[in-house]
Task: structure prediction
Amino acid sequence: MTDPTSLPNFPPPADEHPLRGIVLDALQDEGFRPDIDADGDVSFKIEGQQLFVHCTEGELPVMRIFGQWQIADNLPDDLLTQMRAANDLSLRLNIVKAGINAGTLVVTCEHIVLPGSHDVKQLLQLSYQLVLTAVQMWHQLMLGEDVFGDGGSPTDGTQV
Result:
């Protein structure tokens, strides 16, 4: 007899979670190997980074692409400095939101995806690239670099 825990974890039928099914298909079409985690989010790796897509079904379905990164020891550990850098990204970049939670940087992009929308693949591509770019920019801000080209940095207290 075969051990039932050795069976593959098949995703639920697409009609049960239509947006999540579209996301899974779009990521597979792009060559990713997405999976569904214990929270029901779609997970996938890009450039060695683990990202997730949370789909909220309903009258206005929302697709949230996000990642979480433990803040490295070589970066300033001052919470206010970390939060200023996250706030600066959220204010300056379209779609991107960044925040700090218990020593973890969280970066997200969210979109309302109307039923029958055909641009999910493009939204996913745009969003995961924005998330990864924002993480890189946050690190640069933490190191005092002028990523926006205006001479200001939230980490040095100068006005932006």
